[in-house]
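Progress against Task 2.4 (sequence-to-structure conversion) is shown through the following example record, which the project officer requested during the mid-term review.
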Amino acid sequence: MPAFTLYGARGSSNTDRVRLTLAEGGFTDYDFVVVNLQKGEHKSEENIKRHPWGKIPSVTFPDGFTLYESRAICKFLARKFSFPLLPPDSNIEAVALFDQAQSTEMLYFGEPAGTIGFEKFAKKFMGLSPNDAVVADALRSVEMFFDVAERLLQQNDYMAGKDFTLTDIYYIPLIQRLFVCGYGDVILSRKAVSAWWGRCVNRPAIQKMLAADKEALANGGKKDRD
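Structure tokens generated for the chain above:
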């Protein structure tokens, strides 16, 4: 029996955050059940039992334990299965810096980047037009964020310090979305940010997962499980 079941969708930035964490941890003993967003399966009674807000991802364990919200899932899995993606609890300063970096990603980057992804990417599949004013405002916030990150990354290799952690993984899906939406220059035009992005996205486990997803997309997205 698999250790747990992950419910989500390939290409969903929140689901991919969890899948990237599992890939980096080298963990494959789980089932991946696709929730079809276009068919509204995320709003089904079954999914709402797993995620009260009717969203993805969520994970369920054989003993009935269920968890939702991607960052909470990532952190739980890293602890439960001892992935080397968190600072040791004994180093309280490193833990504090990790928490600081995690909060920074979620509040200062995730919100505006997610807005751009919704307006320029998700709305396309909903048959809706983007709100250009909303996109412009969010893009300014993302650019301001990376102006600060550029200075910080001149001192550290990764967002929480010298080591690659979950915080760096958290950025990857939405930065990929920025590239798809035509805003990759936000990353590539900043030397330290671009170098950090290269260190993250070119990690072997991450490259392997991204290549597998690209192949699945080329095959019509028929692969339902990892």
